[in-house]
Amino acid sequence: MLIRASGITDVGLKREGNEDCFSTNDTLGLYVVADGMGGHLAGEVASKIAVELINKSFSQWRESETNEQDVFGVLDKTLSKEGNYILSSIRLANRVVYEMAEMHEEYHGMGTTIAVLAVFQGRVIAANVGDSRIYMLRNGHLERLSKDHTIVSEQLEMGIMDPKDAAASPLKHVLTRNLGSEVSVTAEVFEFEPANGDRFLLCTDGLTDLVSDEEILQMIQAEESPEIFCRNCVEEALKRGGHDNTTVVSVFLSGIDPPDHGPLKKLGIFLADSFTGIHNTCRKLKP
Prior knowledge:
6-stranded antiparallel sheet; disordered C terminus; alpha+beta; 287 residues
């Protein structure tokens, strides 16, 4: 399996500082995007801590083949060992950000979103908290692999709000879940088998506020270079006002033999946002 990945972040045209953070680690097959919040550099601190802790803890646990029972938090029996490493690293990052915000007055109220993609031979793990997103292009279809944890997203799921009102709602950025606001957090984590030609995008809302899913589909299909694709995404956000920090990480896979069974198989809980508007499927894993 060949992995080609790239990442870029841009402060935008309206903000003085960049509270986003990202990492790409082809050796680990680990890719992380975070969008901090809190002001006075607190958001920058939160996102950086989260990205660094997830990388460090996942790397250490995987290298030492730590028993899943010994990592941070309660074991999720529906996930693989690596899936539990990802879940536990997110829980640990949340606890550290939360305790720092509690202990230091200048960090009160800080927090961050998180989007994580881990790619291994035979398995992909996707996880998120907040509204930073993960997309997958497969067989010409763009699928949103993350769930927006926002008031508007929840109202859409309950049928209280329609997609048109949601797009214009002043509450669309109000998070119901993020790292740092509570002592514990529940992350969306699921696993599936990779397929040849899969392309993934992790991004903050600096992109998705200004560029639609349909436009992302066209852009990711049109470009063979993950680096150029990332650059194109940021440039498009800047053309449309660049009102927020924008961070994009892309991961392109190739050289994967066709699987003997269904292409998308679920191991955890996967809830698609109701207004994705593009092909979005999920099939249960057969025992």
